[in-house]
Structure formats: structure tokens, C-alpha cells
Amino acid sequence: MKCERCGTRTATVRYAEVVDGSLTTWHLCEECAGERGVTGSLTSLAGPLVNILMGLLEGGGEAVPPEADPTCPRCGLSYGEFRRVGRLGCGTCYDTFGAQLRPLLRRIHGSTEHAGCVPTEVSEDHQRRKEIVKLKRKLARAVQVEDYELAAELRDTIRSVECEMGSVQKVDVDTRNNDE
Amino acid sequence: MWTLETMMSEAAGWLDASGPEPDVVLSTRVRLARNLSGEKFPCCSTDEAAGRVRERALSAMSKSNYLTNALVLPMEDVDPVTRRVLVERHLISAAFAEDGAGRAAVAGEGELVSAMINEEDHLRLQCIRSGLTPVDAWRLVERIDSELERNLHYAFCSDWGYLTACPTNVGTGMRVSVLANLAGLSRTGRIAQVLKSVSKLGLSVRGFYGEGSSAQGGFFQISNQTTLGQSEEDIANTVERVAAQLVNLEHEARGELLKSDEHRLEDEVWRARGTLANARLISSAEFMDLASSLRLGVALGLIDAPDLATLNRLLVATQPGHLSRTRAQRTTARERDIARADLVRKSLAGLN
Q: What is the model's pTM?
């Protein structure tokens, strides 16, 4: 099969992209694929997935303006680079790009809340965090219905749970840093 | 003694057709993606850091009761043909067979449990079992993961669970896939409609060798698409329930085939066995076609030999890497077609 771009060389790479929500597949030669930013066999495999992933993101019209391209302080990956390769560089990226990832995760998984297993060492802390999230929801509802007595009670409970957490060493999201 | 040689000369345990629904479901695979806290993910890591991750992961695995005597293969010491063999045995991914820093494959005895170190994530732990058994397979992986967790500090966040390089795996980091033969649905033309409803239930469908591979011989992989927002047990249950429905639909379709023209089907099955038992040259595609017919015949009771386990083992043993394994030189397609025909003939010898 000839390359669908230059029409002369043999097509060796299959490249898929999502344009306006529909998937288009191209058969390209190495050179033309390279010019499109697709190189090597790994990328030709990863390409469609990345494009589908990014298609999800573009679909929401949440393109990040270049001046607001955050960079992970730990691994140096920028959000723009993540959008290009579709892979995050370290656990801290999830913190750094939290605001951008949240809608993406919702679109991929239909949820943004982990409901599975928890490592034993973080399970107490995890329980407290989940409790705080729940209490805060209740608090918001109490404020909405102007039940200020309940709201004050909830606020105190949240404070005391947060206090307990303060005495527990924080262990989630890659806070330790030992390779630089 | 469990060595690379003994492993490669025998068939993987999960091919023995001993699990539930063996006539439709070949195997169930559950894998977990894990990363070590405090280390960059493999794509962004240095060679030194990748080496450190490998040491830490291997040290934790050496303390696991489920991985005693496991085979540890540092990938830089593994030649290209052996890498190919490992891919064909579903022990490593095609991407992992390419070069990368600090990579190691780990295979437990009988290949029921295995792991990749420094693939896309630091650790990919998997369990493959015969037949339709997602919940049991998940329980086994979970036990091993808990053992490892005593010695490994995983990257985890309360909101998003286990953190992975690709956001499509975050949360449980778990992928449950069932490898099923849907030859009946394929032949009755109902497959497209059935697979469409499977994907509407949030599951994805792929070919025999995963992402991007085709559905050779009527084999499809059905797996969960999402990993965040549901517990591992719920995910495993969903896959098990949907796959069980697929098994029912496949049985119905096979029954219809038998009813519509039993003689034609019987003729096809016996011809397939005749060709497989006598051919001197068989391409991979021809083998898959004939083996699929034969498999259907065995499942429908039109023919009683070979058994399903023999057919399962041949699926892997006739792949190019396995056929090239004993040759010193790189083999040509023609040489492999000869070797494949030899192997199939020997496996079917003595049938009447």
C-alpha cells in the first residue's frame, strides 16, 4: 500500500486521528508519519489511543491556552506535553494538573472518585478524607436550607476530623522525593 | 526446577481447559497497574531510577508466597525470539518486548501469576486462569498485591486511587479480560450486534493479542473499560455477568448452526481435522480457520477428539515465536509453515 500523503513511498504506519468527533485512519510512510509527529512503532500503537483520549478532551472544548500551560514541579512534564503523549510523568502530575484532569477523568470513567481498594498504610487517613468529603456535602446542604445549628455542628466535626488527620503523617500523592 | 527452558517447553497452565465454560471461554486475565511512590513513572525515569525500581519490586516479590521459585528475566538478557515467545504466552506486552530501561519479566510456576516491571507503569501484576473466572482471579491478584504492599509504598491518592501513567488506568488500576471464542455468533452474523451491546454496557472488545489485534479464529477479548468509581469486586462481577450472558448467546448461536445444516457443519469439521492431521504446510491464518472449525465441532459434540486443551495449547504453540524457538537462525515464513504443520500433525497423531 502506498502512503496516502505523499503517494510514492510504501505505507508502514497506520495513524488514526479524531477530527470533529469522527475517527479518520491514515496509512503513512515513515517520513510522512514523522512529519505528523508520529515516530517509531511504539507511537504508532499509542497514536490512536492518544488521539481518542485527546478527542475526548477537545470534545469538551476545554483547550488550555498556551500561557496557562502548567508544568509539574517534580518531573517537569507540561500539560501540553501530556496532551501530546497521553501519559503522565509521575504521581505529582495528578496534583499539578488536578483541575484539568478532573473533567477528563469524568469523561473517561464517568466518575472522579476512587471506590476500590486502599493500601493498608493509608486506609485510616483515606477513611477520614472520605468522611470529610461527606461532612462537607452535608454542611453545604445545611447552609442551603438555613439550618445553621446543624451547620455549626458539622463545621466543628469537620475541624476535629481534620485535626486528627494533622497528627497522622501525610502519605498520599507522592509527597516523598528521593530521586533528585 | 522451574526454568526458562522448562517453561517454554511446556504449555501454560491456563490453556488446560479446566475452568468454567471451557468450550467458549479460553481464559480470564486480571491485571493490576501499580507505581511506587516517590519515583517518576517509567516514561520519565532515568536508567538509574528504573534500576532502583526494579530492585525494590523484585525484592518485594521474592518475599511473596505466591511467587516462590518465580522466574525472573531481566529483559536486557532476553534475546528477540524469546521475547516474542513471552508475548505469545501473554506474559509480556508487545510494547514491553521493545527495549527499555530496568525492565524485567517475572513468571510464577505454571504461569498463573506473572509481572512486568517498568512497562508503562512500574509494576503490572497479572493472573491468568482457565475458563470464566473473573472474581476468583481478582481475589488471587488481590492477595499477592497485599503481600507486595507490605514492602512497597505505592503511589496512591484518596480521590483517584492508585496513580498510573495513563489516566485510563487510574483508580483500581485493574483490567479484567475474558478471552472467548464466539465462532457461533460470528457465523450466524449476530456478532456485530452482540458486541455493540457489550460496549454499551461499558466493556470493550478486542482481538486475541489485545489492543489493535484482529479477532482471529473467532476469538475476542472482553474487558472493563473504566477503572475509576467502582470497586474491584464490582468490576470483576460486571465482567463475569456480561461474559456469562455472552456464553449463553454463543451456545444459542451454535445450536442454531447445528439445526440449520448439521451435515454441512459435520463435513466441515471432519475436513478440518483431515487437513490439520495431514497437511505439510500450514500458514497461521489457515491454521486459525481450521482450528476454529474443529473447536466448534468438539464443542457441539460432532467430533470427540482432539480435546479442547490440545486445541488451546496449539493456539499458542503454532505462533511464530514458538515455532522459531528451537532454531538457531531467524526462520522464514515457509520454514515456520512447515514447522507448524509438523507440530499440528504430531499433536493430532493417533486420532481415529
A: 0.79
